Amino acid sequence: MSAHSDSDRRWRGDARCAAYCALTFVVLTTLLDWGSGGLTVGRADLWALIGAVVFMVLRPARVTAGDGWLAVRGLLCERRVRTDALVSVMEYGSISTRLVLRDAHGHAVELDPDVLVANPLLWHRLDAGARRSRQRGTLRHGAAVLDRLGERIDGGTAREILKASGLD
Hints:
Keywords: Membrane, Transmembrane, Transmembrane helix
Protein name: PH domain-containing protein
Organism: Streptomyces coffeae
Transmembrane segments: 17-34
Number of strands: 7
Shape: elongated
């Protein structure tokens, strides 16, 4: 595996936003409970615990990729697939779309495709590995999903270039 890897550029900001939301929840509920006269140490602890759960739910997974691999780190563990040994790519969900990548070694990761749209370097790493999987014949399901995602990313990048150059 390569020593160089790319990661989600938006992750720190998204994680910070999750922390602010959780902290805001704790502060507001504690203040409301205090204002109503019902705040006790136990209730304050409960609000803090619920705030921690809110943070865990809102905190995004951290996506990194290197030459031939892609990893998704959640709160408790990191899952990694070999992008150069993919066997399937599935997209599911209509409101919150998820992308599931499975490799020949039995590993799987699930991620939000918007992470790839927002991070062209991550997309490039995944696409390069998927191309190797296609060449080797291991990618049997989901090539069309990757093609659609690639068109979406390329179209967005082209629009950004045109906008930046004033040609839009």
